[in-house]
Amino acid sequence: MKLNIPVFFKTTAFxxxxxxxxxxxxxxxxxxxxxxxxxxxxxxxxxxxxIESEIAGLRGHYERLGIxxxxxxxxxxxxxxxxxxxxxxxxxxxGLTGNIPNLPPGFLDLDRKMLHPLxxxxxxPDGEVERTLAMVRIFDLPGGFNLVxxxxxxxxxxxxxxxxxxxxxxxAALALLGFLSWYLIGRRVLRRIDNMSATSQKIVAxxxxxxxxxxxxxxxxxxxxxxxxxxxNRIEGxxxxxKDVSDNIAHDLKTPLTRMRxxxxxxxxxxxxxxxxxxxxxxxITESDHLIRTFDALLRIARVEAGSSPGVxxxxxxxxxxxxxxxxxxxxxxxxxxxxxxxxxxxxxxxHANRELVSQAIANLLDNAIKYASSETGHPAAVRVGLxxxxxxxxxxxxxxGPGIPAFEYGKVVQRFTRLERxxxxxxxxxxxxxxxxxxxxxxxxxxFGDNNPGLVASLSLPLDKKHR
Length: 469
Prior knowledge:
This protein is α+β, with helices and mostly antiparallel strands.
């Protein structure tokens, strides 16, 4: 992927890396500066203490032995290994003895209370002369003599240069490492985002089959891509469902509308009597009521699938709902010559759901069962309604003794306007089981089918209420 530098500098990865780097570098500089200052101050105090100690010792020699004794001691002391920078001068500033050959002009005019840097040539024990640096103090002696004494700080300065160089190299390496990390991480992030953007553009263009790539790393991009893909699957499913609904409406509603038009046209075309016109209008009203119920069912299914169902979810007693629905449909079953048996547990089974929708779903299952149980199968027309618990689910079972449904068509019957060939002679719109399936999905449940041999077993499973578990 070709890296777009202007865009790269605008990425969140760059901004976060820059902030972290700035904070870390600033903290490192403060920490190193503090350590450096503390060490340097400690060395300075040690240097002052050592020089004061040397001065006190030399002053003692001078007080006991005089100038001659001091010169002898300085000559001996300056030749010892690890000797301090040391010289005794006369009033003219000429060195009388010590290991400092020459003093810079005007050096003896400096403040006596301060330490002063003094570069000088020092003869090592092996005879080699090296240029070094000392911090010295000037001490006045009686008779115009001066004592210049100090400590060699060349090694300390070398140590400071080494530490400074190390700090500079470390900060440079840290900056380089931060830049490489930012470049690699930012490039990977930008590549993922560019891929997502390209896929999104295809989706916006109308290709709902496109999906965001998942690399399997389990990072936040994979989680985001998974959630977006799930959303796209849902949208694609809704779009396909909308297309199917539109096609089904155009197909299934065209016939009754055409029939209504032809009936009205026929009534108006001939010399129809008042009774004939009234009959035509009554048939048209009946057909219109059927269409209104169909559209009401479609609207309810759409609302349920969109999660905007009427009423509120609450803890409901399924025993009571099943019993009420059975009582409501018993007269219809009796007129159809269908017997209903009910098997309810003694203990109430609770689920957290919308009471109206659950009641409608169970009513649809029972209505279907009564409608098809009366078919001639050689068995008594009967419907069995049961309620039980299974694996944390409340299961409502409605079984009939009708012709049943082939297993390969179980998934088809929950689609809108689906009516199998053997059910074309029965009244209905093909939306009942669609509503039951939508209600089950809304509450996190399922609608499944099985063979009752003969007949169909429909099972509506809903999660148990937490209070019931």
